[in-house]
Amino acid sequence: MKLSTAVQNAALLLLVLAVAAMLFGQAAGQPVLLGYVETGSMEPTMEPGDGFVAVPAGVAGEPQQGDVVVFVAEELQGGGLTTHRVVGQTEEGYITRGDANPFTDQSGAEPPVTEEQIVAEALQVNGQVVVIPNLGEGVTGFQQLLTGVWASIGIGSLLSGGGSAQSLVWIGVGIIAVGFVADAVGGDRKKARRSRRRSNYVKTSTFLVVLALVVLAPATASMMVPSGATSFDIVSSESPNENPLVIGAGETASVEYRISNAGVVPMLTVIESHTPSVTVSRSPLLIPGRGERTTTLAIEAPDSTGSYTRSVSEWRYLPILPRSVLLALHAIHPLAAVLVIDLVLLTVAVTAGLVAVGLGPIRMRSTGRNVTVVQQLKRRFF
User: Fold this and answer.
1) Domain locations in the chain?
2) Span 3-135: which CATH code?
3) For the chain, which has fewer Cβ within 10 Å, the N-terminal or C-terminal residue?
4) 101-150: pLDDT as tens digits
């Protein structure tokens, strides 16, 4: 293989991985390796569509003034992920502002940003954000392409379901990754030379890549998508009422907290609070498929009256390892538990695949002549 071809293949692979990371991050509600901005609120630091390297909050540590953070907003643009700069800090949380905005987010309806709301920080070198120009525009175009492709083959209704957006992302990424990468690595054709390679065979490595995507994609999504921080407002009042979140100043109230599992696979759920004023009575909880469990939050209201924001974090894990092992990994970092679970699933999937098909190439019967499986996939879906 020529050096130029190898460089092109490596660039293509990096592009596919970057798109996959950002698509999954958008579906999961947390940037994965890369993120991008959709509006002009961070101009001139980042233009709409510019990408950046997203460092997970657990790795980046406590944000400092001047850091650009990605947080789950409560009010800004209807809520959701927002990328703004930290410009101050109070006892209630961080003060944030878009570089292009004249006022802070907290000058409006957005409350101070708590650490539980921050999911990532933008990588900075010498105080400057590392910007990848126009990277987000490629992701947006890719999503539109996938939407059109799936609609054209009659299953556009998948987009209307609750978890179907994640399915669309992973199926589309799987097709693109397997098709283009496999074609780039093994699809070079030398002109004026006949090849004796049988085109109706598939490499075992290609089969294992597809198998890994099929197993890991839904497993990871089922753990990452429901996880994250849940915020709620309490009122410290001199006149508490029947509302459980209206609490007497300086007093403690017990509030029921319900966790639902919309999937069909049981999930081990860890609920924790990073605020001393909120205590979780029972955690972790094993929630059956299509079921729910309830725990109790003991919430202490501040002595000063007023409205306050509190939050708890949920982390969900497939219970394929002993509970003690999962909790030990969670104590190191929640993503460490997810990574180990994925490695176990990957090992099982690859082992089962090798036992089923062996090490040799896999023969695929085809009615077309001299048409590779990769080409058939491209013709079928594109």
Assistant:
1) 3-135, 144-223+356-381, 228-315
2) 2.10.109.10
3) N
4) 888 999 888 899 988 888 888 989 888 998 988 876 666 665 555 555 44
